[in-house]
Structures are given as C-alpha cells and as structure tokens.
Amino acid sequence: MTTQHMNKYAGIAFFLLAFTACKMPAIIEKKENKTVSASYTNGSQDSTNTATQSWRQFFTDPNLVALIDTALRNNQELNITLQEIEIARNEVRARKGEYLPFVGVGVGAGVDKSGRYTSKGSSEATTEIKPGKATPDPLPNFVLGGYATWEVDIWHKLRNAKKSAASKYLASVEGKNFMVTNLVTEISGSYYELLALDNQLAILNQNIQIQSNALAIVKLEKEATKVTELAVRKFEAEVFKTRSLQFAIQQQIIETENRINFLVGRYPQPITRNSDNFTNMIPHTVQVGLPSQLLANRPDIRRAEFELAAAKLDVKVAKARFYPQFSITAGLGYNAFNPSYLLKTPESLMYNLAGDLLAPLVNRNGIKAAYISANAKQIQAVYNYERSILNAYIEVANQVSKISNLQKSYDLKSQQVTALTQSIDISTGLFKSARADYMEVLMTQRDALEARFELIEIKMQQLNASVNAYRAVGGGWR
C-alpha cells in the first residue's frame, strides 16, 4: 500500500470520526460531595472506633455467638447474595475477554457441484490440475486452519466496560458485607427480645403468686365480714387477667424463637439461652470515632461508592459508541479438494487479513438515548452516595443520643420499680389492718407489674441501641 493510499484512508477515517462525534448530545455532569461534619453532635474528636472490632469480640454471650456463626453459614438470603457475587465475578471475566483477540481453530469438509452450463462449471471443466486431469466434479473441499478477530479498543470502550463490571463486583461484595451487619443486628435484637420475654414471663409468675396470696387474704377478710363479695371478685378477675397474659407472652416467645431459627436457616427448635442475669446485663460501650471514618467502615457507603464509579465508567462506554469501531480479522490455514493435497505448501496455503472501520450513521437515536440514560444513572448514583453518607451520620447521632437517654430512663424506672415493690407490702399490710381499701392493693400490684415490664423493655432497648450503634458506625461485618 502506497503512502498516498494510506493518507487517503486516514482522511476518510478522520472524516467519519469528526462526523459521528460532533453531534453528541449535551449532558449535565454532577460531582459527588464527600464532605462530612468534623464531629458528631457531642463534639468529640476521639478517633477510637468500635467498628474495627469483629463481631466475635463485640458479643460475649456464647449462645448468641453460636447463633450468629450458624446464620453466616446457613442463612438462605445471604447465600443467595454470595451467588450474586459469583455472577458479578464472572461478568468481570467476560468483559475482560471482550477486549482481547478471539482466536479459534477449525476443521471443515464439504462438496460443491456446479452446473455444467454455468460460468463456474464451464471454467472448472476446462481447468487442468495436471496434464490430462480436469478439476473433480463434484468438487470436494477440505479446510484446516485458524482464525482471529479483534476489536481494537481505541476509545477504551471495552476496557471501561471491564472496569465498570469490576466496580459492580466490588459493590456486590460490599452489599454482602452490609447484609451481614444487618443479619448480625437482627439476630442479636431478636435474641435480646427473647431474653426480655423470658424475664417478663418470670415476673408474671411472681405476680400471680403475689395476687393469689392477696386473693386468699381477701377471702379470709370476707369470711370475717370485713369486705364484700365484690372485693373477692375483683381480686379473682385480676388473677385471671395476669394468667391470660402468660399465654400471650408464651406465644411471643415461640414466634421470636422461630424468627431466629429462620434467620439461622433451620426448622423450628428451642433456642439455647441463659435469661437469669438479663436485668444485670451491661450494654456494650461503643466508641463512634469520627464521621469521616464512616466512608471506610460502612459497607453501604462503600457499595454506593463502587456503584458510582461503575456508573461513571458506563457513561464513558456509552460515549465511546459514538466513535468509529475498528476491527481486525485474520485467518491462516490449508484448503484443498483432496486430503492428499491439504498440507502442500505453499500450493494449499491460504490466509486473509482485513481491517474494518465502522461508524454509526443511521441508528444514532438509540446511541444518544443510551448515553443520556447512562448519565442520568450516574447522577442517580451521586445522590445515592450522598444519601448513604447522610443516613449513616444521622443513624450514629440517633443511637448515641438514644443510649444516653435510655440510661437516664432506666435509672429512674429502677427507682419507680423499687418504690412500687415496697408499696405492695405496705398496701397489703394496711389492707389487713383495715386502713386501706382493696382497690388500693389492686392498683398498687397493677402499677408494680407494669413498671417491672417497662424496666425489662428499657433494658432490651439499651442492649439493642448498643448493637445498633455498633452497626451504625460500620461494625459487624468483619
């Protein structure tokens, strides 16, 4: 090929490039904002962060640790996500293969019969391979060779597609980590709820005993004509009410156990636990560190960051479709009508080499739409990333405040329970000496039961707030 021809083809290629690239639609780009506050609402600048602590170190109850460990192996939803990660990993491999040459080998055989009174048939009849030997009729055809095709990735369309797939794979990994944190949090929350229900059931049993003793006293008082039948019926009704609550709590225990069993990935069975020291359990201390650490510790933020990176690359891939595509095809092998001639060199040798420069001219609306859509998805990814950061900050701030307020509430509620527990004995003594009405005894017992229930509820909320704070700062997946 002469220099004149090369310049001519280069000029044509430049014209196609200019023609196809000059009409790309204008888009509005958006840059993500990664800035976060220097500290949380408490103003602390301590960088110590509980998020770096593994969940095995954070949870000290061996029964809870065993449940979480089993769930991380058997939970169906988590295993589904693991397969999605495998799919994303294979997508990276597929994209990587697209910008490498496709090379293959082939073997073929066939037969061709042309009509005698055709241009091809008449020429074959007069063609002699050797003196006195005409071309065989019908004509066999044997082929042995290799071929290669390669799209030259001038605009990095294929490489960017591969990088985008890699970012999506990393996003799926972070999505799995985020699911692990939620799974750990949900199991621990249900476990603490189960301990709370056990303690509430124990309180009910104690209260039934107290009420039954009070009922026996009222019956004696009635026999002594100190009270009427109404008082006896009121106390009996209160005993029946409390006993009916037992079955409601027992049902809640069954449902909570089965919720844990579902998360663990097994059929219903009793949950091993120790509820005796529930009220004495001390919530875990969570060091929240600095807000900037959320970007590295929170899996949902990291997932949003990788999704944003993939969206940016997808815009570049969509933009590259406006430019010409350059492909090279090549082949090398042997071709003959007789197997004995197949490997004769150079007579049976065949080869080809071609280059194609293809530019989109007609179907540009589809390319424009894909380009604009890719940019819109990139803007969506920016907002999602910023929302993830804001949501993480607010979650930490809420949990820090909740831990503080629950501690104050628990201290006051403990004092209320102590006062009401003492009031039961006082009201019973006053009732025996006819210095208090039976309704005062009933109301005191009822208030004490409700206060003790609320104290257990606050303790459960304290434990859950600690776990939620651990999840909010980015812990639980390591």
Automatic annotation (TrEMBL):
It holds the Pfam family OEP. SUPFAM superfamilies: Outer membrane efflux proteins (OEP). One of its GO terms (cellular component) is plasma membrane. InterPro entries: MdtP/NodT-like, OMP_efflux. Residues 68-95 form a coiled coil. One of its GO terms (molecular function) is efflux transmembrane transporter activity. Its main location: membrane. It is a lipid-anchor. Keywords: Coiled coil, Lipoprotein, Membrane, Palmitate, Transmembrane, Transmembrane beta strand. It is found in: Cell membrane. Belongs to the outer membrane factor (OMF) (TC 1.B.17) family. NCBIfam families: outer_NodT. This is Efflux transporter, outer membrane factor (OMF) lipoprotein, NodT family. It comes from Flexibacter flexilis DSM 6793.
